[in-house]
Amino acid sequence: MRTRDEIECWLTDMDGVLVHENQALPGAAELLQQWTDAGTPFLVLTNNSIFTPRDLSARLRSSGLNVPEERIWTSALATADFLKQQSPGGTAFVIGEVGLTTALHEAGFIMTETNPDYVVVGETRNYSFEAITKAIRLLLKGARFIVTNPDATGPSAEGPMPATGAIAALITKATGMEPYVVGKPNPMMFRSAMNRIGAHSENTGMIGDRMDTDIVAGIEAGLHTVLVLTGISDDSEIARYPFRPDEILDGVHQLLAREPIESDQI
For this structure, is 212 an active site residue? Predict the structure, then answer.
């Protein structure tokens, strides 16, 4: 088993690891600074496809975290990267926000409602029955079905709200077509992130707060996995799964160089 000392590059989830409800978690700012000072390649990952990296960088800055936009990798960017490799200069009908449309534009894709190569569904706060209907009809005419992330619900101040996975399920039910999902837990997202920073699985670590996305995808991508308990996972949640991360920490503060290692080595 690899030890943490062998890790030269890091991928980390954002919500539940670095921030919680727009508040920086203990040790997050210091860890990011530690990586920056040491020249350690890293990326902050999120399955949220609504925002551009610039938007997210500004959001993190308001929480007291300095993460340049080039250090942020979203499911929208991973989707655009995947589609660029699959069909350079292709066309797409998109249900999503600026984070997704910008990423696809920058990857050389053309947005169209006429015989697109792909129907791409991402996160949005403005799902339109008309747009969903159009997506269904285009898929039935031969377009291929791509989804940025599988999350069925997302958080809001009022409680859970339907997210990408829920809308994708509606479209699947209407067409009988299952989408290809690029974001976590597809290890494809981690591989594209590693390509972005020139990292290799042998010396890369993944920090996350969810067993069902961050940790399982990290394991499948061959990474050193670190679960932090500042998000949704606790001992009972961990016990539900047949796999285990390499380390379980109370929070990212335990990854700081000056901190003694008090992890559960598994």
Answer: no
Using CB atoms within 10 Å of the CB of residue 84, give its burial: 0 to 12 exposed, 13 to 18 middle, 19+ buried. middle
Which candidate in 13, 55, 81, 214 is catalytic? 13
**Residue list for the binding site:** 13, 15, 184, 209
Q: What is the model's pLDDT at position 18?
A: 97
154/155: higher pLDDT: 154
Please, what is the average pLDDT of the chain? Answer: 93
Hey, what domains does the chain have and what are their CATH numbers?
4-47+184-265 (3.40.50.1000), 78-181 (3.40.50.1000)
User: Going by C-beta distance under 8 Å and a sequence separation of 6 or more, which residues neighbour residue 92?
Assistant: 83, 104, 109, 110, 111, 112, 116, 117, 118, 119, 120, 146
pTM of the model: 0.91
